[in-house]
Specification:
Strands 6, 7, 8, 9, 11, 12, 14, 15, 19 and 20 form a ten-stranded antiparallel beta sheet that branches. It is built from twelve helices and 38 strands. The chain has 735 residues and is an alpha+beta fold. The structure holds (2R,3S,4R,5S)-2-(hydroxymethyl)piperidine-3,4,5-triol. The site of (2R,3S,4R,5S)-2-(hydroxymethyl)piperidine-3,4,5-triol has 11 residues, from loops.
């Protein structure tokens, strides 16, 4: 890994064993990009890659010089309004109304390691040798402002992280109206854009489309990263598949409004932009103040989409997620939400917990309904003290009883929200996000607390930390069940209203920071009506997220498959629930429900006491299986094999680092009559290893056979002997 600067060619070459990224200081002092992709042999200059020629209608930087038109130059962090008419990476409004800037190279530093971003989540290193960072300082003399562009290249893996910081060094007021985290200009447009789109209960479905001239992109203006679009986008070659070909991944370490877009210009160059959505964003940059963008993480793969995803998985599992739970196997949990919703008492909860313990479950999670006047979704949010009618012994009493049974205890909160029917709202009606003189739109009968205000976050911290201190709580589920409307903060001046969306997210991060610091042993699971805030920003604080409210095994195939484009299996909460499924009424076999949920942070979400004795025996075996294989599932390398978006069958496999064991899943949605032969070709195994299948000493196959000839799918091996919604697991162990 190295970052080289050549003083003569004025070029930076960032490279490791897999990638190269080349930046050039252009003749006008701005930064151009010469290359990003597969590693290149280092040389003194790559200046010949700079293209420029006389073109009609182009505007040029210098007089009588027809080479430097920014419109035709691949740039690092472009501004608008000089000679480039494409969408810019940033924009600064000045006192005289001008938005034109000219940031020129001033100096740079290269240092081992990676700095922390104050108040923001980001990838990190544990030893300085793991990465190297380049900070380039640019300066605009007219407005007396600095721009610092940071690039970190990791030693292992094709990973580059980016962020930008603006500093107003002068005496005049500036306003940032756009401050994205990255721009990448690529020299051609032979790409397909891949993104993860959806809605509540069908989050992160994979969408692929050919790039075309113009702008195409995804975004959120909902105040959360959202179920509708995930802050991730990849550009892949049309021929790129799961295991071969080029792909460029872009992932945004942020949980609020975002924009990710690709713009193909008339000369077939592609500009990729990613950052905080500029709509509704306006950040006053008074004299002496600065603004830090969140981080964006770029991954290049020459081994297809699986290669890209595996790089993200490793990075996010080991160098984004933090704390005690990062490397620890996750407890198998039971959550009472689908079993009881708001209607429970202590006896009911203990009844489920006893059966759960008896079957081997390790953690009981008490979901919504334990606090305030919370008997339905119209009341209680904001009042984080126990409802003694339901739980007369308090949370403390219940937690001790659960621990006496032999399980850990976890608790649900929705910290950012309030119902009007609550003590908190009655005391502080002005604490919600609401525009003066306008109605505040309800959603699930609740309102968003103004987390851009310190005193609001302080009060919620006070309430939550009191509960967490008083009872023995090992896990917290942090839910968030509505988006932000009528965004406005009651105490902020008019000039600061454009800060509210971002300051809100900073408030969320601040509360997470305080709670995770004070309670380092608690496992935090994030949730947002399922997966409406499943993003890398949250992963920094909570190592797992409830993937979706949709617990139907067939729907989950798509959701978990799509989620795996960026996020590791260890981050995906996945539970076995009852049938008919509560979201869509489908009846799937108990085996298939577990066979899907194993490939995540595994648990149950149903009333175990409603199962037959026979079903309970199946569950007991499932839990035993999950315990035996969870280390492999959480830390192994995951490969997608068959896509649920392309056919009736889904396949995937997770392989241990030393390749001595693996677990593959095969899932068939609908049964067919007189169908063709089926095989599942595996990936990631060692060709040289002979693997015993499903602990059967009479079945052993070398990895080369399993990957090239594949496993013959036999109906009798599918659960229930075949049929609709059936599945099979293949556990492979080195003989
Ligand atoms: C939405 C979550 O996604 C569910 O799991 C559950 O916690 C409910 N909220 C409770 O209100």
């Amino acid at each position: 890994m190295s970052i080289q600067y050549n003083e003569v060619s004025r070029e930076f070459h960032l490279y490791n064993d897999s990638i190269s990224y080349v930046i050039k200081i252009l003749r006008n002092g701005q930064l151009g990009n010469l290359y990003y992709g597969q590693k290149l042999r280092h040389r003194e200059s790559f200046g010949h890659l700079l293209q420029g020629e006389l073109r009609s209608l182009a505007a040029y930087v210098f007089e009588n010089d027809y080479e430097l038109s920014l419109q035709h130059t691949k740039q690092e962090y472009p501004s608008y309004g000089t000679t480039d008419f494409r969408y810019p990476a940033f924009e600064i409004k000045q006192e005289n109304g001008s938005r034109i800037t000219q940031f020129e190279y001033l100096s740079h530093t290269i240092f081992p390691g990676k700095k922390k971003l104050a108040g923001l989540p980001a990838t990190y290193v544990e030893e300085p040798e793991e990465a190297e960072t380049l900070e380039i300082r640019l300066y605009d003399a007219l407005i007396d402002a600095e721009l610092i562009l940071s690039y970190t290249i990791f030693r292992e893996g094709p990973i580059l992280t980016r962020q930008a910081r603006f500093i107003n060094c002068g005496a005049k007021n500036l306003v940032l109206t756009r401050a994205l985290s990255l721009c990448v200009d690529l020299p051609d447009d032979d790409f397909e854009m891949v993104n993860l789109a959806g809605a509540w209960s069908r989050e992160r479905h994979v969408v692929t489309g050919r790039l075309k001239q113009g702008v195409q992109g995804i975004y959120s203006l909902r105040g959360a990263s959202s179920a509708e679009h995930n802050p991730f986008l990849a550009l892949k070659r049309p021929t790129t598949g799961e295991n071969s070909g080029e792909a460029y991944g872009f992932s945004f370490v942020y949980s609020g409004n975002f924009l990710a877009q690709a713009e193909v210009d008339t000369h077939h160059s592609t500009r990729l932009l990613m950052g905080i959505h500029p709509d509704g964003f306006e950040w006053p940059l008074g004299p002496g103040s600065d603004f830090q963008t969140p981080e964006a993480v770029m991954v290049y793969s020459d081994s297809g989409l699986n290669g890209m995803s595996q790089t993200y998985h490793r990075l996010y599992r080991t160098r984004l997620a933090r704390g005690r739970w990062r490397d620890q196997v996750r407890p198998i949990l039971i959550n009472n939400w689908e079993a009881t919703s708001f209607h429970f008492d202590e006896a009911k909860i203990l009844g489920i917990a006893r059966t759960a313990k008896e079957l081997g479950i390790e953690l009981f999670v008490l979901d919504d309904g334990w606090f305030g006047a919370r008997n339905n979704d119209r009341a209680g949010l904001g009042d984080w003290s126990v409802n003694l009618e339901k739980l007369p012994n308090g949370i403390q009493g219940l937690a001790s009883k659960i621990e006496e049974i032999g399980m850990k205890f976890g608790l649900w909160f929705e910290p950012e929200m309030v119902n009007k029917d609550s003590d908190l709202y009655k005391a502080h009606p002005d604490w919600i996000i609401q525009t003066p003189g306008r109605a505040a739109s309800p959603s699930r009968n609740q309102y968003v607390l103004d987390f851009s205000r310190r005193e609001v976050v302080d009060e919620i911290y006070r309430q939550m930390s009191t509960v967490l201190r008083e009872a023995s709580i090992s896990y917290v589920k942090w839910d968030m069940n509505r988006y932000i409307t009528e965004c406005y903060s009651a105490t902020a001046p008019a000039s600061d209203q454009g800060m509210v969306f971002h300051k809100y997210i900073l408030g969320v991060y601040d509360l997470y920071d305080r709670l995770t610091a004070e309670f380092p042993d608690i496992l935090f699971e994030s949730c947002s009506s399922g997966g409406a805030r499943f993003d890398p920003g949250i992963l920094y604080y909570a190592p797992q997220t409830w993937t979706s409210d949709d617990t139907d095994a067939v729907e989950r195939l798509k959701i978990q498959y799509g989620t795996s484009f960026v996020y590791p299996l260890s981050s995906m909460g996945a539970h076995v629930s009852e049938v008919p499924n509560q979201q869509l009424g489908r009846v799937t076999p108990l085996e298939t429900r577990a066979n899907v949920a194993y490939f995540g942070a595994f648990g149950y979400e149903l009333d175990l006491n409603h199962l037959t004795d026979q079903e309970r025996e199946v569950v007991r075996r499932q839990i035993d299986f999950a315990k035996r294989h969870r280390e492999l599932i959480q830390k192994g390398t995951f490969y997608r094999l068959l896509s649920p978006f392309e056919g009736n069958a889904t396949g995937w496999i997770v392989v241990s680092e030393d390749k001595s064991e693996a677990l593959a899943g095969y899932y068939q949605v609908l049964n067919g009559v007189n169908e063709g032969w089926k095989r599942l070709k595996l990936a990631g195994l060692s060709e040289e290893i002979n693997y015993m299948m499903n602990d059967d000493p009479n079945r052993a196959h070398y990895g080369d056979e399993l990957m090239n000839a594949g496993i013959v799918i036999r109906k009798e091996e599918l659960c229930g002997g075949g049929g609709d919604f059936t599945s099979a697991l293949y556990y492979l162990k080195k003989v």
